[in-house]
Amino acid sequence: MSSLGERYEEHHREHRAGGDFVFVVERIPLFQAAIGRGRRVLDLGCRSGALTRHFLEGNQVVGMDVDRTALAKAEALGIEPVVGDVEEPLPFPGSSFDAVVAGELFEHLRFPRDLAEEILRVLRPGGVLAGSVPNAFNVQNRLRFLRGLPPERDRTHLHMFRPQDLEALLAGFADLRLEFVGGRFVRLGRRLFAQDVFFSALKP
Predict the structure, then answer these.
(1) Is the dihedral of CA 189, 136, 178, 43 positive or negative?
(2) What are the backbone angles phi and psi of residue 122, rounded to the nearest 5°?
(3) Domain residues for 116?
């Protein structure tokens, strides 16, 4: 099986021409509120910093990604770049960050629980994990499944998360909060129409 780095270098190369933007912009204020300011922050899978830039001001941010080309753009924004594979042990000492960001990341991993444990290790007590995953069980994906199509269009997605799956994944954290966000019809029913599930949790 190819490494995460190999898979992502190919995936990012295919999508770089589309430019740098943030999917589901409704996540931005949630990340900002969860992280706050005056923090040492680790953004895992930061790519070019399209999301990271929104919580960069007032914080010291380290961005980690396998894509060196994307990291060069992140560095130009003032993000400290670290080349690394999140499916390997994180190259940081324990209790070294006040906040860790995992935006649209866990669904891509073969072993997301391993990363959750590593995040706990590198967070300081009381530190926050802020992240998001696609709302894989929204009505659009359910209709695709009923039509005999794969519910997930992105071939790099290896997991589909329900709220109870996130609760199990982050069982070692405290004060887990979930918020369904994004989508034109989200007011009709967040669980059915939201594009993303934002989550935050604290290291005990």
Answers:
(1) negative
(2) -85, -15
(3) 4-202
Is the pLDDT reported for residue 17 higher than 50? no
Contact 173, 202 (CB under 8 A): yes
Q: Which amino acid is at 73?
A: K
In the chain, how many domains are there?
1
**Measured between alpha carbons, how far is 130 from 119 in angstroms, rounded to an integer?**
11
Residue 141 clears pLDDT 80, i.e. is over it: no
The pLDDT of residue 157 is: 80
Q: What whole-number distance in Å separates Cα of residue 202 and Cα of residue 134?
A: 21
Residue 34 to residue 4: CA distance in whole angstroms? 28
Q: What's the CATH code of the domain at 176?
A: 3.40.50.150
User: What rounded mean pLDDT belongs to the chain?
Assistant: 86
* β-bridge partners, 103: 132
19 Cα distance to chain centroid: 19
- Residue 183: pLDDT band (50, 70, 90) is confident
3-state SS assignment for residue 60: strand
Q: How many CB atoms lie within 10 A of CB 75?
A: 14
CB 124 within 8 A of CB 203: yes
